[in-house]
Amino acid sequence: MTPHRLALTVLFAASALPHLAAEDSLKSFTPDKPGLRFVPSTPAPPSTTRGKTYPPAYVQAVNEVFRAFRTRDWERTLAALEKADKILPPTPMTLNTRGAIQIELRNFEEGARLCEEALKLDPKFYAARINLAEIPLVQGKYAESRRMFEKFLRDNPKDELVRFRIFLTLLLEKNYDDARRAIDQIPFPGDTPSYYYANAGWEFAHENADEAKKWLGRADWTFGPDKCAMFADSFYEIGWMKRAEVKKEEPAPQPAPSATAPLSLAPPAASASQQP
Question: What are the C-alpha distances in Å from 235 to residues 108, 212, 222, 229?
Fold first, then answer.
């Protein structure tokens, strides 16, 4: 039942950035916007920066990052990240995405380092904080992961995804009494599929696959596949569900960007270059 690899929080969607950026206010890549893969129960903490704009060339590069990561094409994702980092200095989003890839590749130390670099630019960046807590979970260090998630929950007591992750650490430890109590602490009805997936996980762990699939069907009907993705990924990696094969996409042609002065999304990394 030990997970080979759990889902990593990257916060991506093709619609996450405005295509014409000159008049759009800059906001952090937070998980509270419609259309993002990762949707917690409460909005993420505010970004350290506000009131800036994305240059169109950067919008194009980051949209390519999102598309490539969706297909798990790490080589293409890294190439798109290189392009983005030549337009703007590394941001929490790009650093966290690099970290997520390294964790997927089992390079845990480098993945943690990159997530920590993201947090230096934005200490409240949700995705990087979650990924750091996921590393020991991926490694089977359930108690360590749980301590990190519990600390996060004290700051964000309404976060349903974190409650689900805490439940999962208990379930994978076969601490069924505490796991059952953890399910009862997940709101129902809630803002995410947490309650449904926790019950599905309980049934899978007790070899009741038919009942588990009923819970999954209810979750998908209620919330749709996008909101279920972060929860389903955990089950793929544990082996309770089979991941559908995703075909790698060819990079879509992009129109030439209009001239817009690039502005940093967060305090720039010292070693990053910046081009107009």
Answer: 20, 11, 19, 10
* Same fold? 1-140, 141-244: yes
Give residue-wise pLDDT tens across range 27-42: 333 333 322 223 222 2
Could you report the per-residue pLDDT of 74-90, keeping only the tens digit for each? 999 999 999 999 999 99
State how far the alpha carbon of 14 is from the alpha carbons of 17, 36, 65, 223, 262, in Å: 7, 9, 9, 20, 20
Q: Is the backbone of residue 248 left (phi > 0), alpha (psi -120 to 50) or beta?
A: beta
pTM, full prediction = 0.69
Fold of 141-244: 1.25.40
196: how many CB neighbours lie within 10 A of its CB?
Answer: 26
101 token code pair:
């890839």
Whole-angstrom Cα distance, residue 25 to residue 22?
Answer: 8
